[in-house]
Amino acid sequence: MRRLAILGASGHGKVIADAALLSNEWDKVEFFDDAHPDIKFVETWSVIGNTNDLIMQANQFQGVVVAIGSNDIRLCKQRYLSQSGCQITSIVHPSAIVSPRSTIHQGTVVMAGAVINPFSVIGEACIINTNSVIEHDCILSSGVHISPGCLLAGSVSVGSGSWIGIGASVKQLISICNNVIVGAGAIVVKNIKEQGTYVGNPARKLF
User: pTM (2 decimals)?
Assistant: First the structure.
């Protein structure tokens, strides 16, 4: 039996659990959350411990994934679990289209309807959310979140910890630096070289 441990009893965690089971690569999913024992269930799944409990039970799971929305916390937790002996895995929803010529690093999740085209590289602990499109030759660093319905044209690069908001679009050949937030529906047509929040069409720095 292949058992998957998910750290983070959240809505995001529920979507990951559903994707994992639909893929038929996992037989059982169990949750861990640092709010345990106050949280004991997330829908139909049991929450059986916290981060330390997961580390103690690491040899009982064939895969571990972190389901935390915050990019910084997700990446930090994943690296801590990996250093502690957990077997970090990636989850790809069966309806996603992922080119075999792309590269996905450990701990990344690819949700329903997402497309990752050839020669793109997706870093560790990324979220490629529902119906988003990552075109050819894109490079996403670690801990990036691409929200539902985002469109990244060819050869876009996104720095570590950045978050592209729901429905945003990024023009081809654009570079976005680390720790940037691109607001919902924004359209990025120029390189973003400074950390901050960018909104609108064309996207401009808000603060």
Answer: 0.96
